[in-house]
Amino acid sequence: xxxxxxxxxxxxxxxxxxxxxxxxxxxxxxxxxxxxxxxxxxxxxxxxxxxxxxxxxxxxxxxxxxxxxxxxxxxxxxxxxxxxxxxxxxxxxxxxxxxxxxxxxxxxxxxxxxxxxxxxxxxxxxxxxxxxxxxxxxxxxxxxxxxxxxxxxxxxxxxxxxxxxxxxxxxxxxxxxxxxxxxxxxxxxxxxxxxxxxxxxxxxxxxxxxxxxxxxxxxxxxxxxxxxxxxxxxxxxxxxxxxxxxxxxxxxxxxxxxxxxxxxxxxxxxxxxxxxxxxxxxxxxxxxxxxxxxxxxxxxxxxxxxxxxxxxxxxxxxxxxxxxxxxxxxxxxxxxxxxxxxxxxxxxxxxxxxxxxxxxxxxxxxxxxxxxxxxxxxxxxxxxxxxxxxxxxxxxxxxxxxxxxxxxxxxxxxxxxxxxxxxxxxxxxxxxxxxxxxxxxxxxxxxxxxxxxxxxxxxxxxxxxxxxxxxxxxxxxxxxxxxx
Length: 484
Hints:
Elements: H1 18-28, H2 31-44, E1 48-50, H3 57-60, H4 62-75, H5 77-86, H6 92-106, H7 127-135, H8 142-153, H9 165-168, H10 180-191, H11 203-208, H12 217-229, H13 231-235, H14 239-246, H15 250-261, E2 283-288, E3 291-296, E4 304-306, H16 308-317, H17 323-356, H18 358-363, H19 373-380, H20 384-390, E5 395-398, E6 401-404, E7 412-414, E8 420-422, H21 423-435, H22 445-454, H23 461-470, H24 476-479
Parallel strand pairs: 2-5
Antiparallel strand pairs: 1-4, 2-3, 5-6, 7-8
Helix pairs in contact: 2-4, 7-8, 8-10, 12-15, 14-15, 17-19, 19-20, 22-23
């Protein structure tokens, strides 16, 4: 017989509040993404303002943020005016005078006769705009120009025509109706434009459209044969096979293949948006008076502060009807605390890393020590998960280059002498071995494994292969050069 009963069970568990979950997500963001979040908050929150002296565009895009903040302040003017009119506080007139004085001093708009910085910026030119401008200079009738424009508008970002010509006939409205032969003529017209290779329907066709740039007649003829019939051998760098099939010396085939590789397989990439997301270091490491100094990059720290005058006005005149403004004030305070905590944690982690990886900064990758997240977490008094989030998408600028913070962590590998060695050091050694190899006799992964063993580093061949791939170094067959 089945018995059913109800019991109360009490348990203790830890849960993250929505605000804390949001803070964790912000901590894991890159500084560029985090800065964008802060700018968005600055644009909609009247209690946040750009800190004085932070009008350098490299530091925080302060010009854009300041415009957004001033706009939001003007939007809130009516709300505060209504609050002032309902209050009977004795200091109301002084508050109003202070308000207008701040608003007047904070506005810095240029006169109508001044040239705006936006007027001096160059507009982005898309591929379609670039091609259309060339078509407009050609002596074409309206019908041919319309067909060519249809093809131009159908090109993708690479500059390729992925849509079959027959399908484009459905979107062409000409009188008389266009035929497939008309579209083929229009395609040839587009393919004659700059950049060379635009309007191609395959990689082979794109390269063929650029072969006229090869001045040597013999090299151009061989390149045409390779592109038309041996593209897979070109991709596999099978120089010996191409030399046998074409009856040429390996050295000549190697020179032809090198010339083909200098062609542009994606001609459309030359045009488009000029906004490129570069890696901006979060931490800068320099050696000053024999000591390694670690500091935050001022360019990635948002220069925002609480508008204390607005906060004081709200505290003196807030009512039940202004609860939304209270939420804005709480958001502003939380944002400032999050900015301070985020960059303080990043700086602590970076200092702990530099403290343990001084030999890397002094002598290079082969001096990198094994390092784990727990060691850094214990150093700064935090949890491993926090260190993992801090090192994600964060970069450090050193005299040796810019590295992601995760680059400094690697597990220990025991050498034949019993000493610990990091994977980064082994990768650096593999890099040096391949750099010094003979071009006609490159080292295989097995040979690299043997040379590492001679230096007391017992590493499996598959590990050598993995590290070589991490270094983006091609296999032995593709590294072999033929100079004779």
